[in-house]
């Protein structure tokens, strides 16, 4: 047997012996060793895994909490609600037109009066005396004018007979003209005083409600309204009321005379009043960029009072492709308006949108959003694109249908 053959025989015996030894160890020793390794793994790895999981949960619990709302399709009509206050269609303060004393007042606050109705009477003894004197002056001026005219007639005959010179006739003619002018002045003075005497009767200039009375019987009143003289009455015509509202620039081209609107007041919550746009300023205010608009509201039943706070509601039709979102969901940035969209993994993403009309508490989104996408309400600058957040219950933002009057 050669050395090579001896070497192969030795290796074969050694391999057979090793396999027998390994098979002998394949029992309890092998499982015991595996159990020890598994125990060491559990002792070392499981606590670390728990710590990492707790740290991860702690980090996730520190996510900012946000409220979300959903973009919605608008209803057939959407409302633009603007504040305003009611005013009488006509309102005036009534002053005395002559000096005197209040003889008697006939109406008090809340009284409805007709145009031309007597409100109060004023005694004017000084005016009465001046009128009597003026009438006497008219009589005197009439007599002087008659005498001058008769004298002129006689001098005309003398001139025709060439008894007197034309110059003397011209002098008499000038005297007669002067007496006639004096008569006209006297008559004009009488007319002025008669008109002043007519102001003793304080009458209503139009049909309305007496809203203030500042006189008592016997009060001294003075003519004029120079700021130091108090008015006698204040009168308001309330069968029709006017309301002024300032329409934002974004809606200014949607407002036109003849357009309908509804008016509501807090004091009458179960009723609305029909109103109509009668005129607009035709230009935007350079400071506020709003359009001054006047509406009129019929008020024959007198339920509305001048000076009441009111809400004016305009109804506008929407484009079928637009969406409505609350104003507080839109961020205005230097590169355009944006919203924050929350995805299924509760991560936020900045989305550029194109705005339409401003409807007060809501704005139109023309493009950039899909219906019912969840948006962050009241987003802040601390929210970054891609950041994870915790979502609260969704806020209600369903568009309201227009109120029917």
What does this structure look like?
The chain is of the alpha+beta class and 405 residues long. It folds into 4 domains: 65-77 and 320-391, conserved putative lor/sdh protein from methanococcus maripaludis s2 fold (Beta Barrel); 82-88 and 238-317, Elongation Factor Tu (Ef-tu), domain 3 (Beta Barrel); 96-124 and 201-231, Beta Barrel (OB fold (Dihydrolipoamide Acetyltransferase, E2P)); 126-198, Helix Hairpins. It is 31% helix and 33% strand. It has 4 helices and 22 strands. The protein has helices at residues 3-25, 28-61, 125-160, 166-198; strands at 65-66, 68-70, 77-94, 100-105, 112-113, 118-123, 201-203, 208-213, 220-221, 233-248, 260-264, 273-284, 290-298, 309-317, 323-326, 331-333, 336-342, 348-352, 354-358, 362-367, 374-376, 390-391. It has a 6-stranded antiparallel β-barrel. Strands 7-6-4-9 form a 4-stranded antiparallel sheet, with no helix packed on it. Strand 16 (331-333) and strand 17 (336-342) form a beta hairpin. The longest helix has 36 residues, at 125-160. It is elongated. Residues 398-405 have low confidence and may be disordered.
What is the CATH superfamily classification of the largest domain? Efflux pump adaptor protein, beta barrel domain
CATH topology of the largest domain: Elongation Factor Tu (Ef-tu), domain 3
By secondary-structure content and strand pairing, the structural class works out as alpha+beta
Largest sheet: 6 strands, antiparallel, barrel
How many individual domains? 4
- Strand segment tally: 22
CATH architecture of the largest domain: Beta Barrel
Shape call: elongated
Radius of gyration: 50 Å
Helical residue percent? Answer: 25-40%
Topology as H/E string?
Answer: HHEEEEEEHHEEEEEEEEEEEEEEEE
Low-confidence stretches: 398-405
Question: Total number of helical segments?
Answer: 4
CA distance, first residue to last residue = 122 Å
